[in-house]
Design brief:
Layout: H1 2-27, E1 30-40, E2 46-47, E3 54-57, E4 64-66, E5 72-79, E6 81-88, E7 95-102, E8 106-108, E9 112-115, E10 121-132, E11 135-145, E12 154-161, E13 173-174, E14 178-180, E15 187-190, H2 191-196, E16 204-211, E17 219-220, E18 227-228, E19 240-243
Parallel strand pairs: 1-8, 1-9
Antiparallel strand pairs: 1-2, 1-5, 3-4, 3-6, 6-7, 10-11, 11-15, 12-13, 12-14, 12-16, 16-19, 17-18
Length: about 240
């Protein structure tokens, strides 16, 4: 009887120890992932209310939260792993954060900028010459709506290709964001800038212009390596072409 009782105590101890170990393993392999999102209009103005942004972990099913008025969000007891986040809200271009490492009790993401889609429409776009800023290159005539001003600038991005079907999803190069303060400003690229984009003299280059946001929400799609610009205004004139001097 005494031997049976001793064996029972040992069995209970083993079970309790095992449960404790499992609990420790679980606690030590998950933690909190949190962050803050700063919202912007398509210009240079921050937006105070950052509530209602949906934050989804796309590679973990049914794992979604929303931001409070200060743009804060968190995921509790999240297993340690590498995650992809998707930010979305009506009026904003979706933004992805790829390959976010979570491996500590609390992982705090640096403040994320999240911008609205562009209100700038490129209404006219044509080649005006083969120089820019006193150098060989290409210059453009353009018109943007609403007309830009010093306090309400237009932000524009250009996409280049050797193909007439150039677009924001079919390109070989893209420009940095260009800022314009009026509809009579100069626009264009020098030969040096075009060469930096991968083109050479004598090539026929096709280019298309889109309104973009200062916070463009751009990211690289890992499956294709393509840079994605979610905040572009989809209304854009037909592509133009020129021969690089």
């Amino acid at each position: 009887m005494k031997r049976t009782f001793s064996l029972l105590l040992i069995s209970i101890a083993v079970v309790l120890f095992s449960c404790k170990k499992d609990s420790e393993v679980s606690a030590n392999s998950s933690g909190k992932l949190n962050g803050t999102i700063q919202t912007w209009d398509d210009k240079l103005n921050s937006i105070n209310d950052a509530s209602g942004i949906t934050v989804t972990i796309t590679n973990l099913p049914n794992t979604t939260t929303t931001t409070d008025a200060n743009g804060r969000f968190s995921f509790d007891m999240l297993p340690y792993d590498t995650y992809d986040l998707l930010l979305s809200k009506t009026g904003y271009g979706s933004k992805k954060i790829i390959g976010l490492s979570h491996a500590s009790a609390t992982t705090s993401i640096p403040v994320i900028g999240f911008g609205k889609t562009s209100t700038t429409t490129v209404t006219a776009f044509s080649v005006s010459g083969n120089t820019f800023n006193g150098e060989q290159g290409v210059s453009f005539n353009y018109a943007f709506s609403p007309a830009p001003t010093t306090n309400n600038r237009s932000f524009v991005r250009y996409f280049f290709s050797n193909s007439a079907s150039v677009s924001n999803s079919n390109y070989t190069a893209y420009s940095s964001l260009r800022s314009y303060s009026s509809n009579i400003s100069f626009a264009g690229f020098t030969n040096g800038e075009l060469a930096a984009l991968g083109f050479t003299s004598g090539q026929t280059i096709f280019v298309k212009a889109y309104g973009d946001s200062f916070q463009s929400n751009d990211y690289t799609e890992p499956n294709t390596g393509l840079r994605i610009f979610p905040n572009l205004n989809s209304i854009s004139p037909a592509a133009v072409s020129f021969v690089m001097p």
